[in-house]
Specification:
This is Helix-turn-helix domain-containing protein. By secondary structure, this protein is an alpha+beta fold. It is built from 13 helices and 6 strands. Helix content is 47%, strand content 14%.
Length: 257
């Protein structure tokens, strides 16, 4: 907590003067502790303890408000939550400039590739991915992978073998869902559990595994059975976003399933 306190204090000192107080006498730069605490909806005592590095319970919501008041950049915000050992309830999303760069990156890839957020909504994808997974990615803006797999009958024809892949997806989602805000995670899990007995059984099995990639098989309407090697990447500057790339496997190279 000492490092957290030092980081918060230095960011407070870096804040520009409040409007109307540019000439306010002060022995230190930036804002006073009282001003930061009030703006973040915290008690002055509690905020002071944070800067002093005391071992106190800090909630994600309180840290979120503090990050906004301190005007932290995305990397600084991620660092703040990392120091506190907490998941960010509202990680930064890509702005228009970032989105344009990501679209260009995806377009440059010849292999199917798509970008998922913490809810497993598809944010961006390239043309090869749209062709391979049209039943999913062709369903409008931000199609959700879990809703497609468990609620759309087309998933059983596209994803092979469907049942084992479906159970593994739930185990992978459980591992990654810790970064998703509790209300959003609970709402999605309750929705899927109420609509899909398979999802409910898989969730209650309480299996956990990392979404690291591996062989993926699909049934394409024109090309038939096709196999890929999936590789997954975390975006360094965008917490919670993950890029998945499917590299085609030559005929005969796929493992027997």
């Amino acid at each position: 907590m000492i490092e957290l306190g030092d980081f918060v204090r230095r960011r407070r000192h870096a804040l520009p003067p409040l409007i109307g107080q540019g000439t306010r006498p002060s022995r230190t730069p930036g804002w006073r502790r009282e001003e930061v605490a009030q703006a973040a909806g915290l008690s002055v005592t509690w905020y002071t303890w944070i800067e002093q590095g005391r071992e106190i319970g800090v909630s994600p919501a309180a840290l979120d408000r503090l990050a906004r008041v301190l005007r932290l950049a995305p990397a600084e915000r991620a660092y703040l939550f990392e120091l506190a050992g907490l998941h960010d309830p509202a990680p930064p999303t890509a702005d228009h400039a970032d989105e344009a760069a990501l679209r260009a990156c995806l377009a440059a890839l010849t292999a199917p590739a798509y970008l998922l957020d913490q809810s497993w909504d598809a944010l961006l994808w390239n043309a090869p991915a749209a062709d391979l997974m049209a039943p999913w990615l062709g369903r409008g803006d931000r199609p959700n992978l879990l809703r497609f797999v468990f609620l759309d009958p087309a998933a059983r024809d596209l994803i092979l073998p469907w049942e084992s892949r479906a159970f593994r997806l739930v185990a992978e989602f459980r591992k990654e869902a810790g970064g998703l805000g509790a209300p959003a995670r609970t709402a999605l899990v309750e929705e899927l559990s109420g609509k899909s007995p398979v999802f409910k059984a898989a969730w209650q099995a309480h299996q956990v595994t990392a979404r690291t990639g591996g062989q993926r098989s699909f049934r394409h309407p024109e090309r038939g059975l096709v196999h890929y090697q999936q590789t997954s990447f975390d975006l360094a500057d965008r917490m919670g976003l993950k890029l998945h790339v499917l590299t085609p496997l030559p005929p005969g190279a796929a493992e027997a399933t």
